Amino acid sequence: MIVVENIKKGFSNKTVIEDFSASFDTGKCNLIIGASGSGKTVLMKCLVGLLEPDAGNIIYNGVNFTQLNADQKKVMRRKIGMLFQGSALFDSMTVEQNIMFPLDMFTHQTKAEKQKRVDEVLDRVNLSEAHKKSPAELSGGMKKRVGIARAIVLNPQYLFCDEPNSGLDPQTSLVIDKLIKEITQDFNITTVVNTHDMNSVMEIGDKIIYMYQGRKEWEGSNKEIIFSKNERLNNFIFASEFLKDAKDMRMLESRGKIQNDRDMDKLLNS
Amino acid sequence: MNIFSRLGEFLLMIKGMFTKPEHWRMYWKELMHQCVELGIGSLGIVSIISLFIGAVSTLQTAYQFVSPIIPRSVIAQIVRDSVILEFAPTITCIVLAGVVGSKISSELGNMRVSEQIDALEIMGINTKAFLILPKIIAALITIPLLVIIAMTLGIWGGRMIGDITGILPHEIYDRGLLDSFVPYNVTFALTKAYTFAFIITAIPAYFGYNVRGGALEIGRASTTAVVTSCIMILLADYLLAAILL
Fold first, then answer.
1. Chain B window 135-154: which residues touch A at a Cβ cutoff of 8 Å?
2. Which of A11, A25, A245, B62 is the most buried if burial means most Cβ atoms within 10 Å?
């Protein structure tokens, strides 16, 4: 579990995060949503230690990350895996080398043991045939999956995903969402996802935190979000007529007034 | 950002490089990789430049020494000293500042912009130690060797062109090379090579590592890195000559 207490962060004289507190649960997909510039990425960078918060505490399973020295933070970071928006794969290495890199750096396993682990994680993200490919040869979705494989190769306790669906088509986005959800549950890790993707919110959002101008505006689950009366959240998440209709349908469905039957023939003939 | 802030940031970057490596073998591998990239990779251009510099120096010195009272072996002495003292270390390193400097700056800049450096940081790796230090050490190993090769090829280029054009037979050239040779000049040239090697790698690494933005900023950082490195090389060249000669 990650607990964030009264985090503040600013640059020059501009405050980006203002007194943010939240907790991110183990074994759940914790989503941070919000408009561009609301402070999601800065918050995530503070959580993983890429940025130093101006005030507040970040507590990983009882360990106050903000009070650790540089060496202790380095040790703690080995328990963290992160999927970056652009995947951040090392251009000069093949897929296999990218995934093996953390093993080479932090373990003293034999070549065969490392190879076995690489095969396992590549298999887990359904990329068993991509070992020798370079990142330039991969599609956006494949890059994300390699990014996930690299993030989980050291069996992290915490997984951070920064906009995992950006630049992906809806079908590939679903695959990535499903993968993140499965990994979170299978390994019982604490997953924090920054996203703009409303599909992700509805599909994998066990816990959703909506940020508005650097503050926590709303918190709840994907079941609760459709009943939220928060105007800012509703304006953000159900921005189009299509999404408003989808929300209404979900509300009716959850109140048992309609069946969510996706068989179009049945629906049209009823 | 003013010059003092940049200097402070640069010094902090240098300080930040010295930590215990996470895995010695990986750092060694990276050092060897950089030795090949910076050293072997620059061998071709250094060889071509040195040969031509030696050849042109011989031709131009011979052209200026038309007096019959000056022995022709003096041409070889002048070529030798010019190549050892200035051409081999300074010109070679200015060219390398362009070749190696822009490569280092754009490589690190691209890694920064595409979040590869952040990815390494998240893994718990000291990126300054892993990405910058091997480059500087590799340059300190390979650039003095390249300068020695440049000296040899420069002098040999002068000898070859003297023979080919008939301006200076190699027997006279060889005699001139041995006349009044000061071994300290080689020590001085190597001192310059070590200093320039540091400049060529540390300054572009600083600009590349601290890139913020996108492709345009990577290009700008590369240009700034090369220009700053060249100016620093010339400044260091003057200071070393003033202090050590």
1. none
2. B62
| Whether A30 contacts A211, CB under 8 Å | no
ipTM of the complex: 0.84
State pLDDT tens for residues A201-219: 888 889 999 999 999 999 9
Interface of B with A in 55-114 (CB under 8 A): 110, 114
Q: Are A28 and A180 in contact (CB under 8 A)?
A: no
Q: Is the pTM of this model over 0.90?
A: no
Residue of chain B with shortest Cα separation from A86: B114
CB contact under 8 A, A88 and B116: yes
| d(CA A71, nearest CA chain B) in Å | 9
CA distance A193 to A199: 13
Rounded to whole angstroms, how far apart are CA atoms B182 and A122?
Answer: 63
* Residues B116, A91: C-beta atoms closer than 8 Å: yes
**pLDDT single digits (tens) A116-159:** 999 999 998 888 888 899 999 999 889 999 999 999 999 999 99
Domain ranges across chain A: 2-239, 240-270
**CA A18 – CA A1 distance, rounded (Å):** 22
Please name the residue of chain A whose CA is at the shortest distance from the CA of residue B113: A88
